[in-house]
Structure formats: C-alpha cells, structure tokens
Amino acid sequence: LANATITNCIVQRTGQWTGQEISGDKDGGAAITANGGTNSIIMYNVVNTSGSHACEWHCSSGLRLMYNVFDTYANRKQDLGGIYCFNALTQSGYNGRTYATWSNNIIRSNIVLNGIGSNAGTTSGLKARGIYNDEGVNGVLIDSNSCAFIASAAYYNNSNYYGYQNYNYYNTQA
C-alpha cells in the first residue's frame, strides 16, 4: 500500500498466547506491520509488549520510521527485532539471493527496549535484536536510535547499502 501512514497509535499486549500466530519471521504477529508500499510513514507510536516483532517493515522506498517507542517484545518467539526489516517483495529464491535496490529509507530517533526472546521449542538460544535487517535489506539510513536491555542492539543478515550513525546502546551487545 503506497503512502500508508501509521501515527500516534498505542499498541499493547499483542501475540501473548504461544502458538496463536504463524511461524516464521515475516509471516504476521508483529504489533505494527508495513508490508511494502512506497513512502510509508510510521511515527509517534508506542508498542508495549508484543510476542513477536514490535514493528515489521517489508522493503520499499521512501520509508520514514521515526520517533517511536518499542518496549518489551519477542517474549513468545525468538530471532526477532524491535524493528524488523525484510526484503520480501523482491526475493527470487532464498539461495539465489537476488534483491531489488531500494532507496531513501530512514529509521531515526526510535527507542527500542527490553527484547526478551523465548526459548520455547528451540535449542539455539535466546535471540532478540534491537534493529534487525534481514535478507537483502538495503537503502536504509539508520540514525540516532537508542537500544537498551537487548541481547543484540543491531543485526544485519545478508543486508547492505545502509548508513549507520549516532547509535546509543545501554546494557546490550553492539
């Protein structure tokens, strides 16, 4: 959906029953989701307690994800992000890893706190990230975000073409 705007929302206690959502990182359950679409705006929102991602964005161009607070997420699943980005729209085979190039995306001045991670059903350990760029994410400026009380503040999996600056960490691994 082009030109989508999600602003001034308070989202609380989503995905709190284990098994109520679809398995996988990009298949639903996030408190806020922007599924592609150019020129999306996600601003001035508060998410408090999400079993999955606090905010999930599938790549496009012109995103403004700014001035949000994401507190307590991934308490029912693991390998998730407070802000999770995935290049789902243009993936042409997982092993081939061919993705479109996106541009003019900004993730700025968000506060991401208390990434929990659930070890139910896995032996791989707890994984919750602050900002998680997965599979082909590109064309993103990540600026002036703050992350605290998370196993990993930022994680990049097969992603490139991003700027990363002015980050604030507290009680987290860089």
Number of strands: 16
- What is the string of SSEs from the N terminus onward? EEEEEEEEEEEEEEEE
Query: Shape from CA axes?
Result: globular
- Based on secondary structure, the structural category is mainly beta
Low-confidence stretches: none
- How many helices? The count is 0
What is the averaged pLDDT score? 83
How does the SSE layout of this entry go?
Layout: E1 5-7, E2 10-14, E3 32-35, E4 41-43, E5 46-50, E6 55-58, E7 64-66, E8 69-73, E9 80-86, E10 105-108, E11 111-115, E12 128-134, E13 140-143, E14 146-157, E15 162-165, E16 168-173
Parallel strand pairs: 1-4, 2-5, 3-6, 4-7, 5-8, 6-9, 7-10, 8-11, 9-12, 10-13, 11-14, 12-14, 13-15, 14-16
Account of the protein in words:
By secondary structure, this protein is mainly β. Helices cover 0% and strands 47% of the residues. It contains no helices and 16 strands. The chain has strands at residues 5-7, 10-14, 32-35, 41-43, 46-50, 55-58, 64-66, 69-73, 80-86, 105-108, 111-115, 128-134, 140-143, 146-157, 162-165, 168-173. The strands form two sheets. Strands 2, 3, 5, 6, 8, 9, 11, 12, 14 and 16 form a ten-stranded parallel beta sheet that branches. It has a six-stranded parallel beta sheet with strand order 1-4-7-10-13-15, with no helix packed on it. The chain is globular and about 35 Å long. The relative contact order is 0.17. The mean pLDDT is 83.
Describe, in short, the structure shown.
With 174 residues, the chain is mainly beta. The chain has no helices and 16 strands.
